Amino acid sequence: MKVQFVKWCMTAKDRTPVAVNPSRVDCIEHFSDAFNHGGTDEAFPAATKIIMQGKQEYIVQGAVADVVRALNQGEK
Question: 59 has which bridge partners?
Answer without folding.
Answer: 49
